[in-house]
């Protein structure tokens, strides 16, 4: 009787968005699309941080989770497409919040790779994502709309406007000098469909405050990769999120001048010499937690700067010239006699663990920039692996990469965990990530709103072309 009630609630729940009709170009990548699907004999990691549950049945009906429970007490509906999950695990779709649809193209510019990147993100198990900055104006806003219409395969996208920044040397960034300019900028891009903003390193406190207030007035959140403004100052101005863990913090630079970005290496050096358990470290962590500022872990991009780390996963999908360029860079970093990242990388992990243990909302992203070794989809799986290396349990790390991201984005009522009534945003992996987190790489099916996509087909469609389109 209880199971019947739960099923009825799932079918009437308003939480899930309407599934769009899929274009012929999107349907090419679909592996499962039936009204009722049942995963049987499967292990469930539900995204809440709870222990994995063995021997489960997950029933999906019309794009939503209709039932989850032990095989001994959860019926498989007549006519359902049955997927035997023996030896396999279902997790929520990843919800990642520092992604990009651009990539380093050389010469200080960034190319627009919305087509290949959205397919790779989906293939890697990402069913929802926020772009953490926009170098290409309308392209990613248009891609977000195309995915929502079903015209293109990809995750749901919280599309960020071009960067909020002050005087800078980036040819693809606007310069905002006054609060009035910031307000006009924010209103313009919201009117064009942007659903998120990111402030950057050269912004002033005055302009940042105006941007935050204008965005909040229209129900939009603001994150930042900062330098000229400290984390404490940004928290006091009302920022919602800060990027790159503590590695962009300039709070520990003793002689920092207001509204000026010290050499970024100096900021990282002070983070490197500040223990998270020290009085300054604890004070900043406590302030951010009190102000309810979320922090984004982007360990994947910093791993590529650190000598002695393994070759990043996924570089085989790059166009040959980009693959060769990155392989040379990786070898060059490996030969470096000394690097601040040798000690800074584990220090960054320690700060993130301390922030989360203090009650802060830690979310995850990958930042496919740097030297080009952060590959969408593959790096999202790696991001969760690195959180385990930082000291989180596998189920805690999966929560950071799923439910925490959904909570920050305000979509946890419909995705981010496996529960009756939520969208069937699910990933089927071969193995047991609760015991071996690297099993996250064994993605066999990615289900978004109950439609199952074939990761192998998505990857094959772009292999050898990533970095070109």
Provide tags for this entry.
single chain, Urease, subunit C, domain 1, TIM Barrel, 2 domains, nine-stranded mixed β-sheet, 16 helices, 34% helix
Per the principal axes of the C-alpha atoms, what is the gross shape?
A: globular
The H-level CATH homologous superfamily of the largest domain, spelled out, is Metal-dependent hydrolases
Helical content (DSSP H or I, runs of 4+): 25-40%
Rg over CA atoms, rounded to whole Å, is 22 Å
Tally of separate helices: 16
Describe the structure.
The protein is an alpha/beta fold and 469 residues long. It has two domains: 2-93 and 418-460, Urease, subunit C, domain 1, CATH 2.30.40; 94-409, TIM Barrel (Alpha-Beta Barrel). The protein is 34% helix and 19% strand. Strands 1, 2, 3, 4, 5, 6, 17, 18 and 19 form a nine-stranded mixed β-sheet that branches. The protein is globular and about 70 Å long. The relative contact order is 0.18.
Give me the secondary-structure topology.
Layout: H1 2-12, H2 24-27, E1 30-32, E2 36-44, E3 53-61, E4 64-70, E5 81-84, E6 88-92, E7 94-99, E8 102-106, E9 109-112, H3 114-123, E10 126-131, H4 139-149, E11 156-158, H5 179-192, E12 197-199, H6 205-217, E13 222-224, H7 231-237, E14 241-242, H8 264-272, H9 279-290, E15 294-297, H10 299-303, H11 320-334, H12 341-357, E16 362-364, H13 378-390, H14 394-400, H15 403-409, E17 426-430, E18 443-448, E19 451-453, H16 455-460
Parallel strand pairs: 2-5, 2-6, 7-10, 10-11, 12-13, 14-15, 15-16
Antiparallel strand pairs: 1-19, 2-3, 3-4, 6-17, 8-9, 17-18, 18-19
């Amino acid at each position: 009787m209880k199971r019947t009630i739960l099923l009825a609630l799932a079918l009437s729940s308003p939480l899930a968005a309407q599934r769009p009709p899929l274009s012929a170009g999107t349907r090419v990548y679909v592996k499962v699309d039936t009204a009722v699907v049942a995963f049987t004999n499967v292990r469930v990691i539900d995204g809440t941080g709870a222990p994995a549950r063995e021997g489960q049945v997950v029933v999906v009906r019309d794009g939503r989770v209709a039932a989850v429970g032990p095989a001994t007490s959860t019926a498989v509906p007549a006519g359902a497409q049955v997927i035997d999950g023996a030896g396999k695990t279902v997790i929520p779709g990843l919800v990642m919040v520092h992604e990009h649809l651009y990539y380093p193209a050389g010469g200080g510019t960034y190319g627009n790779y919305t087509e290949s990147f959205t397919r790779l993100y989906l293939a890697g198990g990402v069913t929802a994502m926020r772009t953490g900055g926009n170098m290409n104006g309308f392209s990613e806003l248009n891609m977000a709309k195309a995915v929502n219409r079903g015209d293109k395969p990809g995750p749901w996208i919280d599309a960020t406007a071009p960067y909020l920044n002050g005087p800078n040397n980036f040819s693809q960034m606007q310069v905002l000098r006054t609060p009035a300019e910031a307000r006009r900028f924010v209103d313009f891009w919201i009117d064009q469909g942007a659903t998120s903003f990111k402030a950057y390193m050269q912004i002033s406190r005055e302009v940042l405050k105006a941007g935050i207030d204008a965005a909040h007035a229209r129900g939009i959140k603001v994150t930042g990769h900062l330098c000229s403004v400290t984390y404490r100052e940004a928290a006091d101005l009302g920022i919602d999120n800060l990027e790159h863990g503590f590695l962009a913090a300039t709070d520990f630079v003793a002689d920092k001048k207001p509204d000026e970005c010290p050499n970024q290496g100096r900021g990282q050096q002070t983070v490197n010499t500040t223990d998270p358990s020290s009085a300054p470290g604890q004070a900043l962590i406590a302030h951010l937690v009190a102000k309810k500022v979320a922090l984004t872990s982007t360990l994947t991009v910093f791993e590529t700067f650190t000598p002695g780390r393994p070759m990043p996963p996924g570089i085989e999908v790059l166009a040959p010239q980009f693959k060769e360029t990155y392989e040379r860079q990786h070898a060059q970093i490996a030969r470096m006699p000394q690097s601040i990242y040798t000690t800074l990388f584990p220090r960054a992990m320690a700060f993130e663990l301390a922030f989360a243990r203090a009650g802060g909302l830690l979310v995850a992203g990958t930042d496919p920039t740097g030297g080009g070794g952060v590959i969408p989809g593959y790096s999202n799986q790696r991001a969760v692996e690195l959180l385990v290396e930082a000291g989180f349990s596998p189920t805690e790390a999966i929560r950071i990469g799923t439910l925490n991201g959904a909570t920050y984005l305000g979509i946890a009522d419909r995705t981010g965990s496996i529960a009756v009534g939520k969208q069937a945003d699910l990933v089927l992996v071969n193995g047991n990530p609760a015991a071996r987190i690297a099993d996250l790489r064994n993605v066999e099916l990615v289900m978004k709103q109950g439609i199952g996509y074939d990761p192998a087909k998505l990857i094959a469609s772009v292999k050898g072309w990533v970095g070109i389109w």
